[in-house]
Design goal:
By secondary structure, the protein is mainly beta. It has a domain at about 55-130: OB fold (Dihydrolipoamide Acetyltransferase, E2P) (Beta Barrel). Helices cover about 10% and strands about 45% of the residues. It has two helices and eight strands; from the N terminus they run ααββββββββ. The strands form two sheets. The protein has a five-stranded mixed barrel. Bound molecules: zinc ion. Zinc ion binds near residues 39 and 44.
Length: about 130
Amino acid sequence: MENAPAGSWRKQDATYNMTGSKCEKCGTMYFPPRIICRNCGRDGKIKEHKFSGEGSVYSYTVIRVPPHDFRNVAPYTVAVIKTNEGPMVEGHIVDNGKKVEIGAKVRIVLRRMTVDGEEGLIHYHYKFELV
Ligand SMILES: [Zn+2]
């Protein structure tokens, strides 16, 4: 994955800390963060909101034929997580020996995602582990 470092830094807070946004007018939460509320438009008051990082498996699949960057970690599980706050988030499931199933509780963890080349930049990203 050849990400531009500047692009990685800009997304760091959302990627590392699961920081999204919340409309203080209607209470709707967004992840990834939005700057305008879908419900309230310009009348909304969007503020940064740190998500709990907890949720449950809404759906999942096992990737057996991965893209190039993940060829060394396949097979692995990718899931759609329904966060406790509401928004759905896609992420890798860390293999901790527990069985992935719909409705299983998860929490966010920070893990290495990819490395640029042999000695390149290591990219970290959130993943989810079963609790
Ligand atoms: Zn709103």
